Amino acid sequence: MSKDYKDVNGKLPLHLIDPVALRTLGEVLQYGLNKYGIENSTSYQHGEMETYIAALLRHLLAYQEGEIIDVESKLPHLHHLFFNAYVLIYIMKRDNEGDKNE
User: Fold this and answer.
1) Which end of the chain lies in a sparser environment, N or C, as judged by fewer CB atoms within 10 Å?
2) CA-closest candidate to residue 88, choices 59, 47, 60
3) Helical H runs in the chain?
4) Cβ atoms 53, 88 nearer than 8 A
C-alpha cells in the first residue's frame, strides 16, 4: 500500500492552536518589556515557582471577584493567568531538565 500523504504520526498538531494563544502571551510579555525593560522582561526564566503561583492566584481571585481587566496593565486578568501558567510550565521543565543534567 502506497502513501500519498505526509505521515504526521507523533508530530504535534501545532497548526490547531489558535493564534490568539500566542498573541495573548505576547501581549503580557510586551507589557513586561514596557514596565521592566528588556533586562528584566525575561527574568521569569530564572524565577521561582512561588512567585508565579502567587501572581496566578492573584489574577484568578480578581477574575473570580468580577474584575475582568487588570487595572494596572489594562489587559484581561485571564491573559496574566495564562502567562503565569506558561511560566510555571517553563520553570517546571527547566528544573526537571536541570535535575537530569546533574
Assistant:
1) N
2) 47
3) 19-36, 38-41, 49-64, 77-100
4) yes
Rounded to whole angstroms, the Cα distance separating 75 from 18 reads 19
C-alpha cell at 80: 496574566
Q: Are 84 and 54 in contact (CB under 8 A)?
A: no
| β-sheet bridge partners, residue 76 | 69
Residue keyed to cell 493567568: 81
Report residue 89 as a C-alpha cell.
Answer: 510550565
Q: Any residues with CB less than 8 A from the CB of 32 and at least 6 apart, and which?
A: 40, 41
Name the residue type at position 8.
V
Residues 1-35 pLDDT 10s: 455 667 778 899 999 999 999 999 999 999 988 88
pTM of the predicted protein model: 0.80
